[in-house]
Amino acid sequence: MSVLVYAENQSGKFKKSTYEVVSYAREVADKLKQKLIADSINSKETNLLSNYGPDKIIEYNNPLLNDFTLQNYSSIISDCAKSECASLVVLSSTADSKYLAPSLSVNLDAGLASNVVSIPESFSPLTIRRSCFTNKAFNLTILKSETNIICVSNNSYGVKENKSKAEIISKKIAVNQDKIKIESKNKSSGAISIADADIVVSGGRGLKGPENWYLVENLASALGAAMACSKPVSDMGWRPHSEHVGQTGKPVASNLYIAIGISGAIQHLAGINASKVKVVINNDPEAPFFKAADYGIVGDAFDVVPKLTETLKAFKSS
Amino acid sequence: MNILVCISIVPDTTSKIKFTQDQKKFDINGIQFIINPNDEFGLTRAIWLQQKHQANVDIVTVGLSSCEPILRKCLAIGANKAIRIDTDPLDGFAVAKELKELCSKEKYDLIIGGRESIDYNGGMVPGMLAQMLQMPFVTNCISLEVKDDFVITKREIDGGIETTSCSLPLVIAGQKGLVEETDLIIPNMRGIMQARQKPLEVIPSIKSVSKSEIHKFEELPPKKSVKLVDKDNIDQLIELLHSEAKVI
Ligand SMILES: Cc1cc2nc3c(=O)[nH]c(=O)nc-3n(C[C@H](O)[C@H](O)[C@H](O)COP(=O)(O)OP(=O)(O)OC[C@H]3O[C@@H](n4cnc5c(N)ncnc54)[C@H](O)[C@@H]3O)c2cc1C
């Protein structure tokens, strides 16, 4: 029996969320007294995984696998899980990993839990804590299959170094033409995505119009943060839908979330609640966001945000 | 074209989330139920295909008779037929198995679900269904254009958008973007009257077994009150974020 972790990469490079799930899976494998195996597909830096504790790394290489496609990736990982007798498959919560999980679950006849927020509460039966009701509650779920799959929420465990002398096995792999053909990929170049960000700066209707978004942009760039917005802001077309966060938008689980001119409606808070530290800037001291935030400034965004940006820049350069 | 939209019925987004005394079940006292928002975007997209390509739109839910008012609402929005698979949904896998049974009998060209339900946030039913049916699957789907039996879809990926193409049949898990918020259809009187005449079939469950069960719910721990910083003392905020919260 073993624990299998899928070590996802983007254009060959691992992301922080990958190191986080490998660290997580190491601790789980230790508790289960099982080997930890990491699967890596077309990475240019497979050896870096051994900083996080796997016993064995299996790398698959084929230029046809440069882009993620569901069928091929799913069959590679399921086949590996079968041949390594995996009791648990650990994935991150990136868009691609969450795309994979249900398909793996059918291939492996495995129980599946997403949004897992901590190390399992117990191993027999396997009981995990996950968030539900869009971050308004948690539940303890028992996974009952012989093989189970979990998707660990970003930033819920952290990256823990644990150098190992992992053996690396390279496998050539045959690839089929996927039924789904990728026509194009548009990535906003340079911008940090909400899913990957440690810090997210978010703007609401209080900013009055798209022309004022330089306030959010400047603060985000001073912090190296991703940008987000409330639902009405994206509905009105001030900002792209991809920045809409909340119950019906993207979930945010960053270390720091800064809300500017956002009232803090229940649907907004639901989606961002998993962020560790929340800061609100709003000119209305009665805004509900103050009840959900850790730190707050009552003030006009047009006055406070530029000052905050300047002070931060000075702080960073000192 | 034959379309199936899978509907999950969830508590209204403003609901205060409470559980029964033993923490085993969601407390539905005083809760209003709605069509899961991600599914409603998909339903609206399906109705557009019905209007443009004369597609047939069936909707299905796995649930008990308490779901029927919402199914009638979907009919009032424009679906042709509603199907209720008569069982209490146990987990995502069991629901997908029930849907698979339906889809192996009735041939659907396009099956639309939502990215996730806003109650249990499993994000798994459409993907499992697709794999069980051996159909291609696009998740986080924000655009769907159909031409004959050829489909162009857009999927939201981390930090961007991926455009893909494939032939029908196809399963998607949709979200906002499939249609806009302002496109959602509010049933009018005529729709509501017509919905009463439309078929609502109840079919027996195959009693599929679950692979997981919820042992217990937990409410969020109480929140510490906010620390307010004076707007003329920004340095203090930075100091707090640096030394106390340790996030910058
Ligand atoms: C089914 C459903 C799903 C929903 N899903 C989501 C979701 O996913 N995400 C989401 O965000 N919303 C969602 N909503 C909408 C939500 O209910 C709120 O309407 C929305 O979050 C409000 O956005 P806002 O805070 O930007 O705007 P407002 O509520 O208008 O708040 C603007 C805030 O800016 C402040 N302000 C104004 N001027 C200034 C200034 N100069 N300086 C500082 N502050 C200022 C005001 O005091 C106010 O608090 C959903 C609603 C429904 C019904």
List the helices and strands and how they pair.
The complex is a heterodimer of chains A (318) and B (248).
Chain A: E1 2-6, E2 9-10, E3 13-14, H1 16-32, E4 35-41, E5 56-61, H2 70-83, E6 86-91, H3 95-108, E7 111-116, E8 122-123, E9 126-132, E10 137-143, E11 148-152, E12 167-172, E13 181-187, E14 199-203, H4 214-223, E15 226-229, H5 231-235, E16 256-260, H6 266-272, E17 277-282, H7 289-292, E18 295-298, H8 301-317
Parallel strand pairs in A: 1-4, 1-6, 4-5, 5-12, 6-11, 7-11, 14-15, 14-16, 16-17, 17-18
Antiparallel strand pairs in A: 2-3, 8-9, 9-10
Helix pairs in contact in A: 2-3, 4-8
Chain B: E1 2-6, E2 9-11, E3 33-35, H1 37-53, E4 56-62, H2 68-77, E5 81-86, H3 92-105, E6 110-114, H4 125-133, E7 137-147, E8 150-157, E9 160-167, E10 170-174, H5 189-197, E11 200-204, E12 212-219, E13 227-228, H6 234-244
Helix pairs in contact in B: 2-5, 3-4
What does this structure look like?
The complex is a heterodimer of chains A (318) and B (248). With 318 residues, chain A is of the alpha/beta class. Chain A folds into 2 domains: 2-172, HUPs (Rossmann fold, 3-Layer(aba) Sandwich), CATH 3.40.50; 199-317, TPP-binding domain (Rossmann fold, 3-Layer(aba) Sandwich). Helices cover 28% and strands 29% of the residues of chain A. Chain A is built from 8 helices and 18 strands. In chain A, the strands form 4 sheets. A 7-stranded parallel sheet of chain A has the order 7-11-6-1-4-5-12, with helices on both faces. Chain A has a 5-stranded parallel sheet with strand order 15-14-16-17-18. In chain A, helix 2 (70-83) crosses helix 3 and helix 4 (214-223) packs parallel to helix 8. The mean pLDDT of chain A is 96. The radius of gyration of chain B is 21 Å and the shape is globular. The model of chain B has no long low-confidence stretch (mean pLDDT 97). With 248 residues, chain B is of the alpha/beta class. Chain B has one domain (2-214): HUPs (Rossmann fold, 3-Layer(aba) Sandwich). In chain B, helix 3 crosses helix 4 (125-133). The longest helix of chain B has 17 residues, at 37-53. Chains A and B meet through helix 2, helix 3, strand 7, strand 9 and strand 10 of A and helix 3, helix 4, strand 7, strand 8 and strand 9 of B.
